[in-house]
């Protein structure tokens, strides 16, 4: 059945206008983006197929052009549009964090870090550089691969902190195929970086571990 044949209150576009975007499921939001389905399938059906194929919205955004195009009803143009929406979301959240103290909106910090890291197929170490009012100055992916003291160089982090005149930093790294749980290496690395940054007067406010939709905060766990 085509979406136009659904009761008006159940159609994704009308539902969004009546109740807001937060009232829609992932499939319904994705269906609005897709606009149309394929023969025998509505846009919502196609959206459900995508979510089943890639596991989540993050999985869809992380998929390659080849993977997206392999789904019947999709193609290069849809892949480009998805990537544009994803990047706009990241930039919009980044702009908000530049305008206010990050502690005023801890949920937005988590959302921003998830958008930056959760979709990556490799492990990456991200640093948020903050000014004296804890507003975002810059966000840099500094290291990739297995994160250990031997692969994350404190002098490089200190150098970038001085470059941005950062009063504080927030660290984040992802576990692409694991749980949002810190390892002993993560704890040692955080302390090592904290000690190095203290020498130049830069505070470490938190270290987040990102795994899909899960996040772990070192500060909340009492590890900082």
Q: What attributes does this structure have?
A:
single chain; 224 residues; alpha+beta; five-stranded mixed beta sheet; 9 helices; 5 strands; 45% helix; elongated
Description:
- With 224 residues, the protein is an alpha+beta fold.
- It contains 9 helices and 5 strands.
- The chain is 45% helix and 16% strand.
- Strands 2-1-3-4-5 form a 5-stranded mixed β-sheet, sandwiched between helices.
- A hairpin with a 5-residue loop joins strand 1 (124-130) and strand 2 (136-144).
- The chain is elongated and about 65 Å long.
- It starts with 11 loop residues before the first helix and ends in a 7-residue tail after the last strand.
- Spatially, the strands of the biggest sheet line up as 2-1-3-4-5
What does the average pLDDT come to?
87
Low-confidence stretches: none
Largest sheet: 5 strands, mixed
Rounded to the nearest angstrom, the radius of gyration is 20 Å
The tally of strands reads: 5
**SS class:** alpha+beta
N→C terminal distance? 55 Å
Which strand-content bin applies to the residues?
A: 15-25%
**Secondary-structure element order, as H and E?**
HHHHHHHEEHEHEE
Number of helices: 9
| Helical coverage, percent range | 40-55%
**Morphology call:** elongated
């Amino acid at each position: 059945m085509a979406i136009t044949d659904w009761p008006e209150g159940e159609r994704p576009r009308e539902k969004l206008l009546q109740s807001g975007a937060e009232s829609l499921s992932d499939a319904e939001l994705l269906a609005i983006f897709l606009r149309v389905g394929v023969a025998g399938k509505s846009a919502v059906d196609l959206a459900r197929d995508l979510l089943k194929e890639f596991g989540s919205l993050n999985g869809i955004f992380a998929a390659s052009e080849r993977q997206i195009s392999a789904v019947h009803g999709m193609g290069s143009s849809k892949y480009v549009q998805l990537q544009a929406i994803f990047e706009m979301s990241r930039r919009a959240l980044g702009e908000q964090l530049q305008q206010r103290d990050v502690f005023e909106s801890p949920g937005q910090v988590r959302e921003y870090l998830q958008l930056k890291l959760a979709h990556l197929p490799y492990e990456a170490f991200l640093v948020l550089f903050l000014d004296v009012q804890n507003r975002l100055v810059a966000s840099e992916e500094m290291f990739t691969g297995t994160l250990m003291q031997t692969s994350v160089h404190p002098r490089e982090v200190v150098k970038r902190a001085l470059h941005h005149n950062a009063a504080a930093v927030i660290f984040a790294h992802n576990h692409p195929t694991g749980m949002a749980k810190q390892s002993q290496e993560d704890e040692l690395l955080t302390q090592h970086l904290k000690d190095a940054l203290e020498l130049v007067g830069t505070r470490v406010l938190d270290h987040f571990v990102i795994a899909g939709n899960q996040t772990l905060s070192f500060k909340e766990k009492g590890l900082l």
